Amino acid sequence: xxQDPGGGTKSSAEATTCGYxxxxxxxxxxxxxxxxxEPVAGLAAxxxxxxxxxxxxxxxxxxxxxxxxxxxxxxxxYVRDLQEVDEAQVAVVGGKGAHLGxxxxxxxxxxxxxxxxxxxxxxxxxxxxPSIDDRLDQLSRLNPDDRExxxxxxxxxxxxxxxxxxxxxxxxxxxxxxxxxxxQAAYAVRSSATAEDLPTASFAGQQDTxxxxxxxxxILQHVSxxxxxxxxxxxxxxxxxxxxxxxxxxxAVVVQRMVFPHAAGILFTADPVTxxxxxxxxxxGFGLGEALVSGLVNPDVFKVRDxxxxxxxxxxKERAVQALSAGGTQEVAVxxxxxxxxxxxxxxxxxxxxxxRRIEAHFGRPQDIEWCLVDDDFQIVQSRPITTLFPVPxxxxxxxxVYVSVGHQQMMTDxxxxxxxxxxxxxxxxxxxxxxxRLFVDVTRRLASPASRAGLLxxxxxxxxxxxxxxxxxxDRDGFVPSLPDAGPGGPPAGGGSAPIETDPAxxxxxxxxxxASIAAxxxxxRTKTGPALFDFLLEAFEEHKRVLSDPLSMQAIMAGMEATWxxxxxxxxxxxxxxxxxxxxxxxxDNVTSEMGLALLDVADVIRPHPELVAFLRGVEYVExxxxxxxxxxxxxxxxxxxxxxxxxxRYGMRCVGExxxxxxxxxxxxxxxxxxxxxxxxxxxxxxxxxxxxxGRQKARKKEQDVLxxxxxxxxxxxxxxxxxxxxxxxxxxIGYREYPKYGIVSRYFVYKRALLEEAERLVxxxxxxxxxDVFYLTFQxxxxxxxxxQVDGRLIQQRKDAFRSYHALTPxxxxxxxxxxxxxxxxxxxAPAGALIGLPVSAGTIEGRARxxxxxxxxxxxxGDILVTAFTDxxxxxxxxxxxxxxxEVGGLMTHGAVIAREYGLPAVVGVExxxxxxxxxxxxxxHGTDGYIEILP
Length: 941
Description:
Elements: E1 2-3, E2 9-10, H1 34-48, H2 63-68, H3 71-78, E3 79-81, H4 90-104, E4 114-117, H5 119-127, H6 131-140, H7 147-163, H8 168-181, E5 186-193, E6 209-214, H9 216-228, H10 233-241, E7 251-257, E8 263-268, E9 279-286, H11 290-293, E10 300-305, E11 308-313, E12 319-323, E13 329-333, H12 346-363, E14 367-374, E15 377-385, E16 402-405, H13 407-410, H14 418-427, E17 433-435, E18 438-442, H15 444-448, H16 450-463, H17 465-475, H18 505-526, H19 531-549, H20 552-576, H21 582-585, H22 593-608, H23 612-619, H24 626-634, H25 639-653, H26 676-685, H27 690-714, H28 719-736, H29 742-767, H30 782-791, H31 796-809, E19 817-819, E20 824-825, E21 839-840, E22 842-845, E23 848-855, E24 869-872, H32 880-883, E25 888-891, H33 899-907, E26 911-913, H34 918-921, E27 927-931, E28 936-939
Parallel strand pairs: 23-24, 24-25, 25-26
Antiparallel strand pairs: 1-2, 2-6, 3-4, 4-7, 5-6, 5-7, 8-9, 8-14, 9-10, 10-11, 12-13, 14-15, 16-18, 16-19, 17-18, 19-20, 21-28, 22-26, 23-27, 27-28
Family: Belongs to the rifampicin phosphotransferase family.
Domain PEP-utilising enzyme mobile: 865-935
Keywords: Antibiotic resistance, ATP-binding, Kinase, Nucleotide-binding, Pyruvate, Transferase
């Protein structure tokens, strides 16, 4: 905080009428996009354009209108009373001004009086200096990571804006508005940008606010400073990182009477930590709110549910911030007897939350509200959406629901586009609900029945202990999950109760042939389908898709492999004291299409390695378009053979990609250059013939392990019987565990057939000028796409809104378990068997390895050396080509039977999955030790 000339005090970030700066939680979820602003701006502009109107860019000015407008109209153009504006006028008064106007219209809500200096005034000011346009052009071309250039250019623009004299008529409009409220009163002068306090982007703390400003001269000076604060380095960088054009964001200024409260603080109408929409949180302290925001004191914290304070922590509040009579603020000591007194009574807290619920209902979403208490009367000085909350699936009822994340099971926790979501829902075996671009399964009814609950928890717990723990946390809460008799409609958990099958490799062969025949029929029959007939055909194909997935024999084979794995791990630990013995026994198991995919890329590297010119070409391939990549390769010595090898690989595996459950993701066949970094790693790190050698080495290790285990068992009491049982299970696991990967391969193969046909339809819409771009259909659901093909019409605004929403979803972390109250639960490991400071996870592939951590979030950016340990958020089958070149694996998401774990065991890689925030807690290049047998990671000095 610093004292400014003219009496104003600039807060540490974004202050308000009661002295607030930016308050923490909002900053954790900065996101948004150009489209967050434009639809609202366009609507509002129509409402206030009076002949001159507002230009679309910063450089446009309403000069023509100035000549035609009289005195009152001039005031209306440049100044609006807060009670004259509402949320629809973001383009006129910015996000903060629009929300304050909306607040002032809510019955029973008191808002300090004030007015807004409109964005028209800002446009007029910046039009005075044409050099600003040139600097904005330079700014838009900067790399967001070039902080020095951003800092320099931003400072130049700020100095220019602050140096522009406010024209006389504009200054007169502001001072006339001041005179109506009281010229010598104290005011807060607050920035209010058009990209601010939006549902998907708070922009909290990005521009400036000045407190306790006294006198017209000082007010005008601080209005100029607020205009200039649109170009603070932090605001410019925020917009650059979120893809927002600087020219589309304009600045209004709120001038609002200061109030001098007994207490002030922040009310969240949903718990900002857990996300629970039924729990409100109140932070409170003495004096101006800036003491809380600047970290000068810890606040009192109250939690309220159903009109009752259910928890509170009263802090020792040793300091407070008070306003000075001449302007500005100062820190003061709080009397010792008062320090531990609560800033609010319980009754006041409940009354405040009641006001908050009224505000929440008005805006239609949970709010982050800044408040102050004056003479036992609450005044509201700001309300903005809480942008960090994970949305709750819509159900249309008021019942309690418990949802489990699909993404954590499918190893794809990124958001999906609408077409991808709807396609997965249409082809899934159980109903799925969408929230923030992710899918969830409602397990409430299964949890309600004791029998189905036990089976569900058992299956989930074996795969992901964190999800089980999260579910048990919900179950521990009396009454949240209803109780049903065992015969209720929940039924047995998916995959449970399957009948046994013989240990016969012919079963797997038959299942693979069935899938291949079904895909071949799909490819044959879809060729003649176009227009609406294609969509009718696809709806029938989806039924065949589900029929193949639910094939009882396929389910039995999958469960046979998984159950044999669990049996071996449990029994061999009981009989021999050996952990995770099945990990070695499953090395190089047959018929694993995913592990074969990784080894096959080693064979591609063998074709390229003898030709230095090919290797050099591949190192520069980022400059070659995907469609030209293979043609250019074939022009070089050895290039024809290399092209043929890559083409053969793509023919078998080209339908795969990272995040492959989303049909909209680019496949390797569509973007073959994605594979180039992995091919180059294989060329550098391996000798010719590595694929065959690695597979055979794994097979021999498994065979040797089998002999060792059986020999040791025979030496035990009842040893022959134990050895016979173990031998049957070893044969069983090696027969069926590889097939675990094949159904996903079949799904993705079918998806690529669907996608190619749908993209042809999208191209027809582009040719008919219905769509500007082919991939715009990704932002339509399957049914909406179908409707567009029938009608030859598409709602472009809907597509833009979906793009903006999709962009915002990336900032949200999906929970493993989500309740209908909005509570997000990630679960915890209830363990105490790891060293202090170790990162805890789930052991999925035995062994201990030490090496360099490579934190990689995009497979296309892989640059691995022999002995590296891959650390990433999640791995689906498309990551398996990387597995052949690493020494260990750490992921944030995963379970015992998810794809990454299965392939890690296939390749004999020590692996720990389900490590919360691994990619943040482990730095790229750090040395770490992965304990794949015991499930933890040590970060080494």
